[in-house]
Amino acid sequence: MKFTRLLTLITEVLNKDSETKIDACLTSQMARDIELWSRMYEDKAPWLEKDKIYSMGIPAAVSGELARLALLESETEVTGGTRADYLNTQYKKAIRYIRQQLEYGSAKGGMVLKPYVTSTGISVEYIHGDAFFPINFDSSGKMTMCAFASQLRKGQKIYTKLEIHELTNGLLRISNRAFVSTNDFSLGSEISVGSVEEWSELSGSVTFSGMDRLPFGYFKVPLANNSDSTSPLGVSVFSKAIDPIRKADKRYSQIDWEYEAKETAVHIGESMLKYDKTQDRFIYPDGKDRLYRGLQFNAGATDKPLLDVFSPDIRDSSYYNGLNHQLRLVEFNCSLAYGTLSDPNNVDKTAEEIKSSKQRSFDMTKDMQGALQEALEDMLVAMDFYTSIYHLAPVGSYQTTFNWGDSILSDREKELAAMQQDVTAGIIRKEIYIAKKYGVSEEEALKMMPPQQNDPFGIQEE
Fold this sequence. Notes:
By secondary structure, this protein is of the alpha+beta class. It has helices at residues 3-17, 28-41, 58-71, 82-94, 98-107, 242-261, 316-333, 351-389, 412-424, 430-438, 442-448, and strands spanning 75-79, 110-118, 121-128, 132-137, 143-154, 157-168, 171-181, 189-191, 205-209, 217-220, 265-269, 274-276, 281-283, 292-295, 307-310, 399-403.
């Protein structure tokens, strides 16, 4: 069932049972945008045509690169005591493949990190932007009501489960409702959630006190929502580059057609070919059907040669320049450094523009790390909550540490220049600067320095 259709049906169910009409913050326009981002990520953009316009895979490349940069040097753990050790074990298990999940979430505007208890501990379900339905947010931007939908097909019947989380005045209510239908146009009739074998262990509704947030983390792409400025929801990392991506796909397809259309061929008169009656076709020399093209020449003085080589010039340079221009626009609108997708050897940008583009990428990476850290911290609060509810570990506290690294978030040239100034000022030793610049140990840096040399920093050691 389409995301937009399911949103409409869920809203109808909630409004039917509510005294006041629920105005879902996930508007129909946002739902359509999420569907579009998902299709683009899966190489199913609406402008693609079989054998005519192909996908370059740009949405997946952009999402994957930003996820890679955000997690390149990340380290995180839970510390404290026995309870913290238990949480850390479950936490490490949950984030083992977080890079792939961050890529999906980045493409679809966000994702929910929802812990749940199993027979072996606590697992985490990653639910992407096209599979959950935010209903309400508070003034601080925290989600206070959300619906999750899952469907099963058994024969001609479609079973739908709605899991609704709602936070009101410190009370957390989690309810499960089930429906059965024979079509994709409605949820159908409501049935007991326990009547479906796969959901038989779920309770209809349960309420917990003392909660100040929903029991999951919510990662929101840290970009302004240019689709709906009033919406608290996140947007795809490539939401501002949809048109450049469309044009890049078109330019890429034009290049492919240029090579295919200009492929060398030999036009040969059919009178020179042997005809195979059993196959009802002409037999080309050495079976090279792709190279030869049989033609019928009319008799007369205007006849062309019986063998005519077709090998026109390929206009690839112009097309590649056009494609490269679109890729630069994609990089700019997706906060990627120039050369990430485009040709890095193209030097039509000034050095300052290149440096600015790198800084833009650094800033986006830092913002994504901050958003992910907030989601992980909320996820851990939920894991700690379930640990208490189900008595999975002794009572205790925990601390979470995050180390994102700094090589991605700092400009190396500026860092080395600052270190050189520190050497000149006598704040740090020369070998520390050399070790940093060349990526060696301080001992190796000392060996690299000649025993007798003029001090390039103008410092006279005592």
